[in-house]
Design brief:
Shape: globular
Strand content: 5-15%
Largest sheet: 6 strands, parallel
Number of domains: 2
Strand order of the largest sheet: 5-4-1-6-7-8
Helix content: 40-55%
Radius of gyration: 18 Å
Order of helices and strands: EEHHHHEHEHEHHEHEEH
Distance between the termini: 12 Å
Structural class: alpha/beta
Number of helices: 10
Number of strands: 8
CATH class of the largest domain: Alpha Beta
Amino acid sequence: MHKLRVKAVFFDAVGTLFHLRAPVGQIYLERARRHGLETSDPELAQKLTASFRRAFAAQRPLVFPNQSADRIPALEREWWKSVVTATFSSYDRPLSFDAFFDDVYETFRTAEEWRLDPDAARVLEALRAGGLKIGLVTNFDSRIVDVVQSLGIRGLFDQITIPALAGAAKPDPRIFHQACAGLSCLPAEAVHIGDDYEEDWRGASQAALHAFLYDPAGRHRDPNPPCICKLADLLGILL
């Protein structure tokens, strides 16, 4: 693959730089049991994962037009409570659902349920040392700042862009354009890397950024989009 000369590198967060410790349904079930849920269904964790995916996909983006910045955390919290409530809508709920939700919501603010990609810190450090600006473009909420701080990589980012403050969510080109403006570069002078075909590769490409699909499992055999199997592959492309 030929060398790519850019000024800024943007990364997706979940599924790219860091990953869940376990499937989300398993994590929810573990927490729910702490709050009084009793179940004999051996497949409940898998069912909750599938239910979560449906509930998450059905929600509108984490964008809150005409809201002040100080209102955003509360709005994000309500957004997630709707998702988690819908996830359990067809299943038994913890006895104290509010306490369960508070527990889950705050847990995902920490590093407890997240695992850094094996190459993440080394790649970020090398790109910064090579003179490139580094940004995070994610559809996560404002807790992302706490997450990357807990994972020990907050200081490796020049900018973090989230839907609630950008006024748009991936794959909307506006979130990518705002990220580029924040790092004083043109879209053609930036590259974005993420694991989601629509949100990351197509969204960034349509915003006129260079883009790579992070595909460690090798699911995409077509050369379009261009894929990388390891984050470390970026070093040979960008440095």
